[in-house]
Amino acid sequence: MESHIKHSVGGTTLHTYHPCRRIVPYRVYAVIHTCGIVALMYHHVHSLLTADKTLITSLLLLADVVLAFMWATSTALRFHPVHRSEYPERYVDKPEEDFPKLDVFICTADPYKEPPMMVVNTALSVMAYDYPSDKISVYVSDDGGSSLTLFALLEAAKFSKHWLPFCKKNNIQDRSPQVYFSSTSHSWSDEAQKLKVMYTDMKNRVEHVLDSGKVKAEFITCDQFRGIFDLWTDKFTRHDHPTIIQVLQNRETDMDNTNTFMMPNLIYVSREKSKVSPHQFKAGALNTLLRVSAVFTNAPVILTQDCDMYSNDPGTLVRALCYLTDPKIKSGLGYVQFPQRFQGINKNDIYAGEYKRNFECMGIGLDGLRGPNYVGTGCFFNRRVFFGPPSNFILPEIDELRPNQIIAKCITDQDVLALAHKVAGFIYEHNTNWGSKIGFRYGSLVEDYYTGYKLHCEGWRSVFCRPKRAAFYGDISRSLIDVVNQQKRWCLGLLEMAFSRYSPITYGIKSVGLLMGVGYCQNPFWAFWSIPIIVYGVLPQLALLYGVSVFPKASSPWFWLYMFLFFGAYAQDLLDFVLEGGSYRRWWNDQRMWLIRGLTSYLFSFIDFTLKILNLSTLGFNITSKTNDDEEQSKRYEQEIFDFGSSSSMFLPMTTVAIVNLVALVWGLYDLLVWRERLVLELMLASFAVVNCLPIYEAILLRTDGGKLPKNVCFLGVILTFVLIVLGYVVIK
Ligand SMILES: O=c1ccn([C@@H]2O[C@H](COP(=O)(O)OP(=O)(O)O[C@H]3O[C@H](CO)[C@@H](O)[C@H](O)[C@H]3O)[C@@H](O)[C@H]2O)c(=O)[nH]1
Ligand SMILES: [Mn+2]
After folding, report:
1. Which domain holds residue 677?
2. Quick check: is 82 in a domain?
3. Which positions, given as ranges, span the membrane (predicted)?
4. For 425-464, what is each residue's pLDDT tens digit?
5. Mutate to test the pocket of ligand 1, among 104, 105, 107 (most ligand atoms within 8 A of CB)
6. Total domain count for the chain?
7. Does residue 571 share a domain with residue 423?
8. Which residues line ligand 1 (CB under 6 A)?
9. Quick check: is 368 in a domain?
10. Cβ distance 386 to 291 under 8 Å?
11. Is this complex scored with an ipTM above 0.90?
């Protein structure tokens, strides 16, 4: 297959891979399941032509076509999954001069949803990588344009001069100070105790400034930086302000407090904003950083990080370099992606916040083809990847932005600073290739998935690196409404991609081949899940109420086909999950969340997308809140109690479907006892739905806490149920 995965163990090999053992049985099963799907389609078409229930059969056919398509996309990902190992200890034997430089991009956008201390911890954790510090530059992009964030980073620069030598001398593994100081698993040395006091002081100062909402003159201790805060004039808003670039730490002049090594660069960038110009959300921020960093340091390796994703392993960079510097593969290798992993997930992960399928199963599946998709954070890029296909370099407008340009001047040089400001301006991108052929790609709210996909289409490869110790840890949402809203945004961005001229189903299959193209279709068509989920969630249940069968009777051979396809698909999904280290309970919750998403995020993204196409609305990027201030909510999360909490119309379809299923099940069981009607499949389906909906019934009927389902949603749900039952009479009877 691909040349980079063929290459195997040798004396100085820095990495190896092996295909997963399940490949052969999976492929055999794929053939059998495909035959089952073909038979089912035959059955539907046959009944469409012969029976009189045309509408019902057409709906079932539509639902099954979507299910079959989605099954095909996951089967493509099961075709050649691989696992990899790398040997960083062999890398560090190299002479230090050969170590490449690294530019880290950290994005933040709102000091209230993304607390500045969180950004500080993320920045410190990567500045402290086990690597020559003066080869690292950390750029923080602040789309919130907030002086509070800048203030926090100033404090971080000061603290880092103590934190870095401490970590390196004592070989600390947790290099996010917040994590290290809240850990109870070690005893504290005097030095650590002193640092902890220093850290707590800093945290208090930053939080105090955040509470007061303004950086007052008395908080600023460095005269050098006093002037910069004057830029926040009365006219300054986050949507309309000049570029602010501030070098907070300089690797050419700043040393650590023990005077043994030079410190990494730390640079604050808030690009120019204007109400009249589209700012392209995170992709726009990352492209600005690409240019500003090219002017300042132009490192050949780039790491992109969300501000809540701190480094959990100081050896991660070297691990990524095992791939990025391997002469056998480096020329075509675009990026090395680490999975997104999360902290603070409750034991059974009730909201499926782990996203195992998305961030792990999909990663290993694509890795055996051309490489994993880009997930927005925890990804080390080869800078060259942003300038056209491997074989066809696309020149940026000015020479200073070329990926191989050598930097001769210091970052404090006036010309250099002036150029950096220029490339961060909002008109800079007009009439250039930025966002289309160069840099991160515009056109989708999920800039990450879209960019990775476009890079693969250009011929780049990527590698999935999944060490045992998580390389990065991020934050999760603790309330259901946040979870489904985040997914709705993803889904919208994915729909933009599915219906663009670069849709993976057309352009993708042509550019990256059948398996990879079909595999890439999985996420963009997520919203389509809502079709089978609604059809199977409502139609057979209404039929049950009127004693009409929509599925084959238990005596028919077609009954067994349904059983086989349902249990086969579920069992394989469970296997995927468990073989990659998941637990059974987490899988159960994951499949429940899939049903919930089908009736919330997926469904509403369809609606919003239609409105956008009709020009009735525009899409925005609602940043996920990363604060966990609500104590009650956190407590409920710990206890694994669902939090519906807000009176959102988003929960209405889900509530309605839950009620419909309960009514249908009760009625169906009564029928079974009294009339001995045998609608076995319909009954099984309703029971399955009811078991899945248990937390919803509880939230409607039994709970009194703040996380219960709001009354108006329940009330509307009951009304809608009646409407559906009446409608069912018209359609079914
Ligand atoms: O206009 C914006 C909007 C967002 N961000 C940053 O983008 C990151 C992701 O935003 P978040 O609200 O955390 O979104 P999530 O849905 O949690 O993020 C996931 O989905 C995004 C869109 O696909 C990816 O960019 C992320 O890497 C991925 O973790 C954060 O660091 C934000 O500060 C910006 O810099 N500018
Ligand atoms: Mn996030």
Report:
1. 527-732
2. no
3. 23-42, 54-72, 526-547, 559-579, 599-623, 644-667, 679-701, 713-732
4. 999 999 999 999 999 999 999 999 999 999 999 999 999 9
5. 107
6. 2
7. no
8. 107-109, 114, 141, 143, 281-282, 285, 306-307, 376-377, 446-448, 486, 490, 621, 623-624
9. no
10. no
11. yes
